Amino acid sequence: MNHSMLFAAAALLAAAPAAAQMPKGDAAAGEKVFNQCKACHVTTKGVNRVGPSLHAVVGRKSGSITGYKYSAANQKSNVTWDEATLFKYLEAPMKFMPGTKMAFAGLKKPEDRANVIAYLKTQNK
User: Fold this and answer.
1) Where is the signal peptide (predicted)?
2) From 4, 18, 32, 91, which residue has the greatest number of CB atoms within 10 Å?
């Protein structure tokens, strides 16, 4: 086996556990978990609070809501909020993105994170 094949095999093996860690989410359960987020966020398009609107956040670039004052860390991160990235971010926002304004400690249970993401996906319309 040559080096490039070994590298490809190692990359596949390294990626497999990360994908397996995200359980399938339930949007109805996620709506209940989202109650923890409502002090700072809403899913209404164009409505920002302490945090930006989370309407259509899944698939959106970080720092892209016009009129919301993001942290420099968020503006410069060049993150796309896909499911995998949100899953990591929601576990520990300040660890994922040092300098973020989001002071929430995070959702420690993988199923809570997956459920919130499933709920947020329903808010993309």
Assistant:
1) 1-20
2) 91
- What is the length of the chain? 125
CATH code of the domain containing 28: 1.10.760.10
Q: What average pLDDT is seen over the chain?
A: 88
Nearest Cα residue to 57 out of 45, 69, 68: 45
Distance CA 62, CA 95 (A): 16
- What pTM value is reported for the model? 0.82
State how many domains the chain has: 1
Residue 18: inside a domain, yes or no? no
pLDDT tens digits for 14-41? Answer: 444 444 578 999 999 999 999 999 999 9
In a domain, 54, yes or no: yes
Give the domain extent around 50.
23-122
